Amino acid sequence: MSAADPTCRYAEFHARSLADPAAFWAEQADLIDWERPFDQVVDTTHPPFARWFVGGRTNLCHNAVDRHAATHPDRRALIWVSTEVDQRREWTFAALQREVEATAAILRRHGVGPGDRVLIYCPMVPEAVFAMLACARIGAIHSVVFGGFASHSLAGRIEDCTPKLVVSCDAGSRGGKVQGYQPLLEEALRLSAHKVDRVLWIDRGLVPIERQPGRDLDYAAEREAVAQERVPCEWLESNEVSYTLYTSGTTGKPKGVQRDVGGYAVALAASIRHIFDGRPGETFFSTSDIGWVVGHSYIVYGPLIAGMATLMVEGLPIRPDPGIWWRLVQEYQVTVMFSAPTAVRVLRKADPAYLSQSDLSSLRSLFLAGEPLDEPTARWIRDALGKPVVDNYWQTETGWPILTLARGVAPMNERLGSPGVPMYGYNAVLVDPETGATLEGPNQKGVLALDYPLPPGCLQTVWRDDARYVKTYWSSIPGRQLYSTFDVATRDSEGYTFILGRSDDVINVAGHRLGTREIEECIAGLASVAEVAVVGVADELKGQVAVAFVVPKQADLSEDELARQVGQQVNEQLGAVARPARVHAVAALPKTRSGKLLRRAMQALCEGRELGDLSTLEDATTLQALAQKLRPV
Ligand code: ATP
Ligand code: MG
């Protein structure tokens, strides 16, 4: 390998970040503005806690908005497109600053100050972004709750974060169906033991809002009243809390991830440069939702901090037709795009001609994250786009990618099926979960763990629950001070990591440990299969057996024939031990609202156990259909 070799160049960059984290991150810290310089890069006196850029004072909103408004006021900052209500709007950095200051003035006027919580329960409307940035501006802590969650989930989050004020909206729209927010919010407020003082309503005129005097505020009227008010940024010590956000709840009760200010700003600025290769003045398009971590980091803060415009879309990838995203890429000259495998699978069902109708020459790469990107899906979208498709693996907890290809450092080659290599700052190791030993050799299966300290941008703790933070994340690997991702992986001889599934999802068939993902990937390779989920189910004889739920491409394929094909494929590729004991043909799979398979619910169903927390389930009928199917006749 020569120094010109991109793999080598990246390896050197990564090695430097681990050999001298203080020097490495001090350099990255120059990517943002500091009102007061930090005294210490990282404080590691209280492991497993870490404090980054101690003593430094900065502000997320200043870095995302004001500093660009000062130098490039007329540059595009926020582009909002709703294919649901057929509207488009744009703000330059100067205009965005005005809106954010106005929202900040409204919040302040109603008693919201530094450290107070503001819960944002909104569809994909620009005012929700103003509210997030306004909180950051005045040092209030936002907690965005995905607009698709119903009362029960919302109530739990209200109780946990105890907001002074809630920002909500009359309605969202999905697939042309208007969904009112007030009934859900009112029910959640009724269920919750915590009482909120104020609700700030964004009224889009989609459904009537019943206002409660003394509690409810109208955004437009308030906006009028504060039109001229200026609200300066509150300078915050780097380790103050910027926001809390709940994990997706795929494996159980969601955890309230707490994030800092300075570390997060630096981590995002660095990631846009080194990983996403986004440049000031360009446009970043993330198809996620502001209710998820990808929305926080790569719709709102990341692109704006980097001086990029961010394109925010309310709408589905297939409406008005499956060409919509690619037309937007052309129209707004998007250079970096970020989406999820689940969306690509939806598009894959449509005519590929939709992709070739738009001029995609501006686009540099498409990043995908959130769940395993199987090879056939990756190959399809890569070939259809003719652009690099970069899988990236991370968690709500980390705030930015753990594994991927740092396209900005060096254009490393992709390896389909692998999200790539550990990013700078992350010392990612594979460990044996029983002994805690690090697995050095290639192709060994272990839990993916991260060494202390976690790099900037990662969670500080679990909101108001340091003990849970330590116990959940730092205490599961025997004898080691390591953060567990609870994902199982292997690494090939060149260091590319492959995620095999959640550690709970590794099944043990007659002593063989199998990742459910390996089996799924193998089954997904069948031409007759649209989607598949594999779970381990307790079995008297073998300990556990694999059970597959398969969505066939053609509904008329018989279950017997499907089972035969699946059995044969797994036999040939993985061996008989991995062959599912049962194959169920189903119309749809139960998923979380963020598009992840709810394997634990499927497993519980198969084992006749309680289904547990289902608050993040997208569509309850999928699970009911499965239950129907499994009922003994
Ligand atoms: P909870 O922690 O509440 O159970 P969750 O883990 O689904 O929910 P997120 O933080 O949204 O919540 O998701 C992170 C997880 O998603 C990862 O730990 C991993 O299991 C999965 N994941 C994310 N990206 C990828 C990827 N590129 N490849 C494989 N798995 C991924
Ligand atoms: Mg998780």
UniProtKB/TrEMBL annotation:
One of its GO terms (biological process) is propionate catabolic process, 2-methylcitrate cycle. Keywords: ATP-binding, Ligase, Nucleotide-binding. Belongs to the ATP-dependent AMP-binding enzyme family. GO terms for molecular function: ATP binding; propionate-CoA ligase activity. This is Propionate--CoA ligase. Residues 66-449 form the AMP-dependent synthetase/ligase domain. Gene3D superfamilies: 3.30.300.30, N-terminal domain of ligase-like.
